[in-house]
Amino acid sequence: MFKPGDVARLKSGGPVMRVDRARGDKIFVQWMTSGGKAGRGWFSAAALTATGEAGEAKGTSGGVLHHGA
Q1: How many whole angstroms separate alpha carbon 69 and alpha carbon 57?
Q2: Residue 13 Cα distances to 8, 17, 18, 23, angstroms
Q3: Which InterPro entries did the record assign (predicted)?
Q4: Cα–Cα distance, 49 to 35 (Å, whole number)
Q5: What residue spans define the domains of the chain?
Q6: pLDDT computed for residue 53 by the predictor
Q7: How far is CA 47 from CA 13, 26, 29, 41, 63, in A?
Q8: pLDDT tens, 11-36?
Q9: What is the DSSP string of 39-65?
Q10: What's residue 3's pLDDT?
């Protein structure tokens, strides 16, 4: 299961995202868009795959989201 700080991506593709919180099978994540704007939203845990170490996630724009930001 996902926990705050985990790094994930949608199984269908898209930017790398940082897990902010989880409620049951719903996961709230944050990411940087290709335009450099912050994105955020809830996704089903089944739609996500873990991609790396906890603590930071780089968006497609090269911006970095740090846990606790």
Answers
A1: 11
A2: 10, 11, 15, 22
A3: DUF2158
A4: 23
A5: 7-53
A6: 57
A7: 10, 10, 12, 13, 23
A8: 999 999 999 999 999 999 999 988 99
A9: EEEEEEGGGEEEEE-TTEEE-TTS-EE
A10: 94
